[in-house]
């Protein structure tokens, strides 16, 4: 069974490429400093890899 990941938005999406903005929204992140918890799946890992410079990830 996959673990869980806590994803926190650390940098603003203002001025970012539209694809990166959509990925942040798809993960459920809204505000700077906001966090969400997702299951550790290949799909989520791919989204994390796309915007790894904007977020902080930790295992829960």
Explain what this protein looks like in three dimensions.
The protein has 60 residues and is α+β, with helices and mostly antiparallel strands. The chain has a single domain, classed as Ribosomal Protein L30, Chain: A (2-Layer Sandwich), CATH 3.30.1390. The protein is built from two helices and three strands, in the order βαβαβ. It has helices spanning 18-27, 42-50, and strands at residues 4-9, 35-39, 55-59. The chain has a three-stranded antiparallel beta sheet with strand order 2-1-3, with no helix packed on it. The radius of gyration is 11 Å and the shape is globular. The two termini are 13 Å apart.
Q: Summed up, what is this model?
A:
The chain has helices at residues 18-27, 42-50, and strands at 4-9, 35-39, 55-59. The chain has 60 residues and is of the alpha+beta class.
The CATH superfamily bears the name Ribosomal protein L30/L7
- List the uncertain runs: none
Averaged pLDDT, please? 96
Q: Summarize the amount of helix as a percent range.
A: 25-40%
Portion in strands: 25-35%
Rounded to an integer in angstroms, the radius of gyration calculated over CA atoms is 11 Å
Overall SS class = alpha+beta
Distance between the termini: 13 Å
- Per the principal axes of the C-alpha atoms, what is the gross shape? globular
* CATH third-level topology: Ribosomal Protein L30, Chain: A
Question: Major sheet, described briefly?
Answer: 3 strands, antiparallel
CATH class: Alpha Beta
Number of DSSP helices? 2
Number of strands: 3
Order of helices and strands: EHEHE
Q: What is the CATH architecture assignment?
A: 2-Layer Sandwich
Q: Order the strands across the largest sheet as they lie in space.
A: 2-1-3
How many domains, as an integer? Answer: 1
């Amino acid at each position: 069974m996959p673990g869980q990941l806590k994803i926190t938005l650390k940098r603003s999406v203002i001025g970012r490429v539209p694809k990166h903005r959509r990925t942040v929204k798809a993960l459920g992140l809204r505000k700077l400093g906001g966090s969400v918890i997702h299951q550790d799946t290949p799909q989520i890992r791919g989204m994390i890899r796309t915007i790894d410079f904007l977020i902080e990830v930790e295992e829960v």
